[in-house]
């Protein structure tokens, strides 16, 4: 008998990740909680990984969503972020899980996603420097951990802390989409430009919302000499 990391209800170990996804690992969420998660699959945006099955046809052009087309039409941001890949749709249930993790200190919840993340993204992570999106010093002190760093360590122990967040902002969850898109100054700086030069970088974060945070991080890395920058997030 095991206990679900989210709802803490007991569940039988007769079901497995292997039965669902071919992953050899014991699940850490019960079947009821797993059923509420929406795996991103099928037809997705080539750049940001948005599922095309979840929004109207008029919001896409070819293999890109209009959000990414707008980013790519801006010379300041064109090809800044090669691609993002995400594991799950950021639905109401996953929002509850991430809120419990980030704002109520339950970092253990991330372990529930390790097996599937490793299985799906192993090829992407193999040849890259993994760089978690950092928190501000104030937010790190307040929370006691960085969820992006913990998620990054599910892929490798060799996580590179190449970015520093130099501005402390209001929580993203409290901002409107318009507010998230507008940043007067880049909130990130690169800690060690020598390490970054000519490297393939993989940014790790918990949620891709508008893509602005990842692109601001990618921009300072590009300016420091990085060759190619992509990202992985738990949710999109």
In a nutshell, what does this entry contain?
With 236 residues, the chain is α/β, with parallel strands linked by helices. The chain has helices at 17-21, 31-35, 66-73, 92-103, 114-125, 137-143, 147-152, 177-181, 193-196, 212-223; strands spanning 2-3, 10-11, 60-61, 64-65, 84-88, 129-132, 163-165, 188-190, 200-207, 228-235.
Q: Fill in the CATH topology.
A: Rossmann fold
Main sheet, how many strands, which sense, barrel?
4 strands, parallel
What is the gyration radius calculated from CA atoms?
18 Å
Q: Count helical runs.
A: 10
Overall residue-averaged pLDDT value: 89
Describe the 3D structure.
There is one protein chain. The chain is an alpha/beta fold and 236 residues long. The protein has one domain (36-235): Rossmann fold, CATH 3.40.50. The chain contains 10 helices and 10 strands. It has helices at 17-21, 31-35, 66-73, 92-103, 114-125, 137-143, 147-152, 177-181, 193-196, 212-223, and strands at residues 2-3, 10-11, 60-61, 64-65, 84-88, 129-132, 163-165, 188-190, 200-207, 228-235. The strands form 4 sheets. A 4-stranded parallel sheet has the order 5-10-9-6. A two-stranded antiparallel sheet has the order 1-2. A two-stranded antiparallel ribbon has the order 3-4. The longest helix has 12 residues, at 92-103. It is globular and about 55 Å long. The two termini are 32 Å apart.
């Amino acid at each position: 008998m095991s206990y679900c990391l989210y709802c803490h209800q007991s569940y039988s170990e007769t079901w497995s990740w292997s039965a669902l996804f071919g992953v050899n690992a014991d699940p850490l969420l019960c079947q009821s909680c797993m059923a509420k998660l929406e795996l991103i699959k099928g037809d997705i945006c080539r750049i940001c990984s948005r599922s095309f099955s979840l929004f109207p046809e008029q919001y896409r052009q070819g293999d890109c969503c209009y959000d990414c087309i707008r980013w790519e039409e801006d010379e300041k941001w064109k090809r800044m972020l090669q691609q993002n890949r995400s594991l799950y749709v950021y639905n109401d249930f996953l929002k509850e899980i991430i809120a419990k993790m980030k704002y109520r200190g339950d970092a253990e919840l991330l372990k529930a996603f390790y097996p599937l993340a490793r299985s799906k993204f192993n090829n992407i992570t193999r040849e890259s420097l993994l760089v978690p999106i950092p928190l501000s010093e104030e937010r790190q002190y307040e929370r006691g951990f960085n969820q992006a760093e913990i998620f990054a360590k599910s892929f490798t122990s060799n996580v590179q802390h190449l970015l520093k967040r130099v501005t402390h902002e209001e929580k993203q969850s409290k901002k409107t989409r318009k507010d998230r898109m507008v940043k007067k100054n880049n909130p990130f700086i690169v800690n060690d430009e020598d390490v970054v030069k000519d490297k393939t970088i993989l940014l790790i974060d918990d949620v891709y919302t508008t893509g602005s945070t990842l692109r601001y991080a990618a921009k300072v890395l590009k300016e420091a000499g990085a060759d190619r920058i992509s990202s992985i997030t738990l949710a999109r």
